[in-house]
Amino acid sequence: AARRLPEGATLGGALGRARRMGSALGSDPAARYVASMGGLTGLDREALYTPEFRAGLNGWNPADVLLGPWRRSTGRSVVDRMLDVDVQTYLPGNHLVKTDIATMAHSLEARSPMLDHELMELAASVPAHLKVRGLQKKVLLRDALRGWLDDDVLDRPKQGFQLPIGAWFRDDLRGWAREILLDPGARARGRFRAGYVEGLLDRHAAGRRDHALAIWTLVVFELWHRQCVG
Fold first, then answer.
1. CA gap 7, 56 in Å, rounded
2. CA distance 178 to 218
3. Distances 178 to 43, 62, 175, 194 between C-alpha atoms, Å
4. Over 17-67, what HEC string results?
5. Crossing angle of helices 29-37 and 64-72, rounded to 10°
6. Phi and psi of 137, rounded to 5°?
7. What is the pLDDT of residue 130?
8. How far is CA 190 from CA 14, 51, 201, 215, 228, in A?
9. Residue 113, SS3 per DSSP
10. pLDDT attached to residue 216
11. Cβ density class 150-160: b for 16+ within 10 Å, e for less
12. What is the CA angle 9-14-17, rounded to 5?
């Protein structure tokens, strides 16, 4: 039933969230975690990849990057396993490297006190129900600071640092993304079907679907290839 819902024009919209969450309910926890972390989640990879590129993968599954640490994790609950895999992959591969690049670019020396190894070990030993309770996260930390910080600070929704790439790819960066992904050099690499990529760009630009994360992922891959591979 969830898969019959429209995907919606924005990733954060209620309709899109309901479709994605409902579609994942039939999967096991590991598959749900992988689906939530993937940059190309929701795309038809069979249609995106060219036959030659797909054959060259020799059956390799990119999900194994996350499934490997998941299977090796000794976490006692789904929450603990998710946090364990995050610490091994998402934290060093995303958050910490972004912080390091941004601060060092301005000659700042950043520190992450919450990642002190003794504090991390203590947090890992805390039962899962003291970390997540229903939709509330960081339960123990919030409870410990209750009375020290105002309730409106402790109870306000999480605020991330996500860039408005959805709007950018419909407006200021619309032509830039198209130029990069449909460039003759990108086409000649023979990895992705140009027609499928063009369809992603068109649907996003028209506001029919939110393909911002997929477009961003493909753009970063192409720029990386130009700089590091040639």
1. 31
2. 11
3. 18, 25, 5, 11
4. HHHHHHHHCCCCHHHHHHHHHCCCCCCCHHHHECHHHHHHCCCCCCCHHHH
5. 140
6. -110, 165
7. 93
8. 36, 9, 18, 17, 17
9. helix
10. 94
11. eeeeeeeeeee
12. 85
Q: Which two tokens stand for residue 3?
A: 């898969």
DSSP state of 3: G
Tell me the one-letter amino acid at 58. N
54, burial (CB in 10 Å: exposed 0-12, middle 13-18, buried 19+) = middle
Q: Identity (one letter) of the amino acid at 27?
A: S
What's the gap between Cα 137 and its chain centre?
Answer: 19
What mean pLDDT do residues 216-222 have? Answer: 95
Distance CA 85, CA 30 (A): 10
The helix or strand, by DSSP H or E, that contains position 137, with its residue range, turns out to be strand 136-137
pLDDT tens-digit profile of 129-138?
999 998 889 9
What token pair was written down for 40?
Answer: 């190309």
Burial class (CB in 10 A: 0-12, 13-18, 19+), 34: buried
β-pair type (132-133, 136-137)? antiparallel
pLDDT digits (tens, 9 = 90+) for 68-92: 999 999 999 999 999 999 999 999 9
Using an 8 Å Cβ cutoff, are 80 and 31 in contact?
A: no
Closest CA to 70 of 57, 58, 79, 60: 79
Give the helix ranges, DSSP H, for the chain: 14-24, 29-37, 45-48, 51-56, 64-72, 78-85, 96-104, 117-125, 139-145, 151-154, 165-168, 174-181, 184-188, 194-205, 212-228
